[in-house]
């Protein structure tokens, strides 16, 4: 193997998503079966030892593509020369914590990480924010990285997208492969809007194949509140499915989305579909030549308009809150 390894940095590497993610990256599922990788694990000092344990296990897998593992508690070191940055570690909301406290705590993480990416990452760096509130954390990181093109900062709604595929497939008793053109619009939160008016099942509009009451009263809330349902059932938030979605997101970004289909990505808005420029909001997107492009010209009916606007309004409120805290 002569190709230089791609450096992939994972923050929160000792957490549960990290544990579900690292082995899949090292096995070649993130970038492809021929692409060597070097892993960089960023953790807080108290969790470095646990990250070292995970690194020992990675060694024990003898992955042919894995060319090295570095562990650090310093973002300037962990992002040095990084090509792919997966920002997973975040401050979860704890009992009694106000929304402003949560945003402030995450600003303390994603601000310095954005700056470290700005100052040290490779010129082609691609960033995926998974840690919640993902869209706004991505906005904070991007705002602290003025030298990195805004299009390189994304947040994850692929898990919501995959959840929507699965719920619809189960309802219609079809394989997920018969569904295309699914879109999650807006925020990775309960206000997100999974759109069946543009999605297709075997080439026909999905909304025409289900009854409206199911679409509005079952499908949308089931997808939008799935994260909370997983927490309720597992006693911990989704981990393997979140890691799987991160793999899907980066794999498609680097290798391209399939012809005739698109996926959902929270991207910096260019004003498309009335989403204010600069917000990091989920859109239908294709990847061509290693770049995300928002799919243009989709019809947005009155119901969809209302739902998209509600989620985008929430994103605007989050942006105003972090701006008020001086984080962007
Ligand atoms: P976890 O608590 O198991 O792990 C988080 C890890 O991050 C911990 O090991 C912690 O030490 C580390 N960490 C905290 N601050 C850090 C910092 N400044 N630098 C580096 N590491 C740091 O949590 P998890 O289950 O792995 O989830 C991680 C995040 O992903 C959470 O915010 C969760 O809400 C979010 N999440 C997002 C999605 C999505 O679809 N976008 C889905 C599931 C979970
Ligand atoms: C999910 O969608 O599963 C998570 O974002 C839920 C959470 O709050 O961690």
Key structural traits:
six-stranded parallel β-sheet; 10 helices; 2 domains; binds (2S)-2-hydroxybutanedioic acid; Rossmann fold; globular; alpha/beta; three-stranded antiparallel β-sheet; 328 residues
Structure overview:
Catalyzes the reversible oxidation of malate to oxaloacetate. The protein has a six-stranded parallel beta sheet, sandwiched between helices. It is α/β, with parallel strands linked by helices. The model has no long low-confidence stretch (mean pLDDT 96). It has ten helices and 14 strands. The protein folds into two domains: 6-155, Rossmann fold, CATH 3.40.50; 158-318, L-2-Hydroxyisocaproate Dehydrogenase, Chain A, domain 2. The structure holds nicotinamide-adenine-dinucleotide and (2S)-2-hydroxybutanedioic acid. Nicotinamide-adenine-dinucleotide is lined by residues 11-12, 14-18, 42-44, 47, 88-90, 92, 109, 130-132, 134, 156, 159, 188, 237-239, 242. Nicotinamide-adenine-dinucleotide binds next to α1.
């Amino acid at each position: 193997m002569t190709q230089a390894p791609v450096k992939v940095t994972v923050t929160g590497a000792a957490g549960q998503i990290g544990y579900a993610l690292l082995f899949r990256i090292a096995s070649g599922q993130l970038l492809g079966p021929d692409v060597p990788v070097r892993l960089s694990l960023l953790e807080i000092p108290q969790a470095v030892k646990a990250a070292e344990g995970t690194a020992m296990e990675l060694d024990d897998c003898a992955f042919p593509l894995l060319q090295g593992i570095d562990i650090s508690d310093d973002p300037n070191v962990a992002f040095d020369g990084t090509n792919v940055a997966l920002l997973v570690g975040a401050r979860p909301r704890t009992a009694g914590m106000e929304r402003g406290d949560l945003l402030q705590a995450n600003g303390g993480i994603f601000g310095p990480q954005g700056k470290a990416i700005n100052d040290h990452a490779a010129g082609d760096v691609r960033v995926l924010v998974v840690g919640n509130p993902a869209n706004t954390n991505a906005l904070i990181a991007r705002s602290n990285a003025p030298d990195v093109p805004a299009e390189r900062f994304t947040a994850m709604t692929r898990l919501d997208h995959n959840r929507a595929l699965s719920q619809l497939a189960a309802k219609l008793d079809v394989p997920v492969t018969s569904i295309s053109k699914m879109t999650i619009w807006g925020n990775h939160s309960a206000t997100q809007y999974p759109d069946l008016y543009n999605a297709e099942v075997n080439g026909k509009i999905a909304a025409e194949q289900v009854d409206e009451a199911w679409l509005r009263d079952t499908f949308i809330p089931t997808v939008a509140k799935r994260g909370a349902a997983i927490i309720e059932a597992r006693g911990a938030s989704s981990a393997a499915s979140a890691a799987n979605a991160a793999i899907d997101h980066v794999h498609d970004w680097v290798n391209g989305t399939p012809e005739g289909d698109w996926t959902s990505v929270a991207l910096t808005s260019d004003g498309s579909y009335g989403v204010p420029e600069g917000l990091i909001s989920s859109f239908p997107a294709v990847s061509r030549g290693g770049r995300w492009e928002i799919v243009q010209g989709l019809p947005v009916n009155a119901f969809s308009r209302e739902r998209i606007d509600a989620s985008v309004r929430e994103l605007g409120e989050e942006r105003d809150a972090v701006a008020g805290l001086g984080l962007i």
